[in-house]
Each structure stands twice: as C-alpha cells, then as structure tokens.
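Q&A log
Question type: sequence-to-structure
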Amino acid sequence: MQDVIQERLSISEASEVTGYPPYVLRFYEKEFNLKIPRTDNNQRYYTEKEIDLMNKIKQLKERGVSNNRIKQELGIIPKAEKDAAKSVSEQYILRELESIKGELFKLDLILENLNQIKEEIDQFKQLASGKENDILIVENARLKMKLKEKTYELVEIKEKLSKGGRHARI
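Response status: OK
Response body:
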C-alpha cells in the first residue's frame, strides 16, 4: 500500500488491489455516491483514500451488511434517504412509545386494583380484630358470670356448713 500513497491507480489496477472487478468499483461509485477523482481525460484514478474506502466497503459486505447500512456507516446517505430513514425510525419509536404507554396504563389499572384489594384486606383485618375483641369481651363476661355463680355457690356452701356446724354443736 505504500506505493499507492503517491501513485494514481487506474480502475483495473484498483481492481487488482481490492479484489473487485472494475464493474463493481463503478457500481459502488454510483451506489455509494463516491467522489472518485478523475484525470483531465475523465479517467478514474484511485489513491490510498479510495482504496481504503473500497476495502472498508468490502469488509462490510463480507460481514453481510446491507448497502443502506453501509451508507449509514460511511455517513454518505443522501438527505432524502436520511429523512426517510429518520421518519421510519421516528414512526417505529412512536409506535413503541404508544405500546409502552398502553402497557403502563394496564400496569396502572393493576396497581389500582391491588391497592383496592389491600384496603379491603386492611378493613377485613380491622373487622376481624374487632370481632376477636368482641369474642374476648363476651368470653370474659361469661367467665366472670361463672365466677360469680361459683362464688355464690361457695358462699351458700359455707353458710350451710356454718349453720350445719352450729346445729351439730347444739
């Protein structure tokens, strides 16, 4: 390549260096809107810059990159194509944003439902806690009544015993 720096290669010589046939070099010149320099006789010539560019295109093509993507890589997309690509990208992004908004709306509804369920559970817990307290109060009252009954029974038994003990002494 050192020779290429100072030399001007003809299309056939550039073809040998790049491995592309001359018709491919001409096609790529047109396809990628390349500014290949020309002599006074309007003959194309290739310098290191053009050879490097063709080699880069060749590497990208070997990797299976499309011509449109290569144009993007090289930064040589015409304005109309850039605008069209931008428009397509913007439309895609807008569709994706709308889809995301829809999903967020669904998530908001789910969150709202979950919050309602949580509130209902909290209310149920309070009710259950209140009922447990009611049950405990009732059970406590029942036990107090039973204690009073037993206390009265005990007092009656003591009275009978104390009366019976007096009768026995007399």
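Response note: Residues 79-169 form the longest helix (91 residues).
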